[in-house]
Amino acid sequence: MKVRFSTSDPPEVIDPHVADLAACLARSKKTVVITGAGISCNSGIPDFRSSDGLYNLVKEKHPNVVLKGMELFDAMLFKDEQQTRCFYTFMAELKTLIGQAQPTATHNFINAMKDKGQLLRCYTQNIDCLEAESLDQHLVQLHGSMDKVHCTLCSASYDFSAVYQDQFRLGEPPLCPKCETNENERQRLGKRSLAMGTLRPAVVLYNEEHPNGDTIGLAQATDIKKRPDCLIVMGTSLKILALKKFIKQMAKAVHANHPRTGRVIFINKTKPTKEWDAVFDYEVMGDADTWVTLTEEKWLDTKALAAAKVRLRETIKRQEEEEEDKENMMDTTTKRRRKRAVNDTTAMKATTTTPRTSLSSSSSKTTITIKKSAITKSSSASAAIKKQPLMETNLDGWIGRTRKRGKTA
Ligand SMILES: [Zn+2]
């Protein structure tokens, strides 16, 4: 059953749905959460696609560089020296904003799920690390993190310190300390100089691969095998191809392993396209924090939760009855088909027992042979389907922020 509602709809309309979702989350033991920029907007970090705020900060220092919000996150900018300087200034300003930001109700909600032992994993597209408070191993940062910087040459990793931030603000990437030490040592030994790397924020840009792609791919495959019972997708407009594929696989795992009680929930200010009709059981239009608050209120409302439990039981009973009816109908159809087949065979025997020309006898034989091979083929095909794993577990690693040019995050 598909349910769509908006958090701004009248309470009498949305109350049962909110209660059903609250009950579903209360009983979940393995929830997977996937988050996007939408869940951080209330903490003061603008959505880079729609906001000019950050870009305006950069404009003062680099008045001649024309870069739109999305282009500031595209690896292509490294081809242009001015744009690269602009990128570093932008990252410094973004770091300041992140430093001032506080986790929202949604971030706290995810943390609480982890504390209650209900969170299998949180996958985030956000680089602000606001989920990171206590999630630790339960967090996978799909697009990297603004907590770290790494060397463009040797991949050495360091904390994104205030000193580095000041250098980035001037558009000057700092030299990599490890490369610098190696170079000093070479000079001391009288060896020739080698190239030295610079530091950059450890975020994954569009059109570049995630350095930890294999690890992320492994985490995704492992989580799918762990039979998640609930998937919540929040604050993302579902435009990144790799993420879309992953959400669909995770949703399939929830539905296949928990056909009666597994739920896939989408919460965002904008509606998903038709492509997602069969993926999400619930589409909640609105602010993620508002939905979280409504859900937490329902958790305290024992009467509403009890009613939701009864509704779920009734739905399951109805589903079982429908399935039983379907099976009965199939049985009747099979019996009819069998009866027809028996009649056909009797009729055929009657025809073939009559002495006829050799041509007719051989043609009837050929027909039977074809039927046999068709049966063999179809039964081996169905065996192959049965043998297929439930999910495509080899996710080939996470390929980062790949996207079709011109599309948004
Ligand atoms: Zn280095």
Automatic annotation (TrEMBL):
Source organism superkingdom: Eukaryota
Domain Deacetylase sirtuin-type: 11-300
Keywords of this entry: Metal-binding, NAD, Transferase, Zinc
One example GO MF annotation: metal ion binding
Pfam families: SIR2 (PF02146)
Chain intervals for the UniProt region annotation (Disordered): 319-365
Source species of the chain: Absidia repens
Protein name per UniProt: DHS-like NAD/FAD-binding domain-containing protein
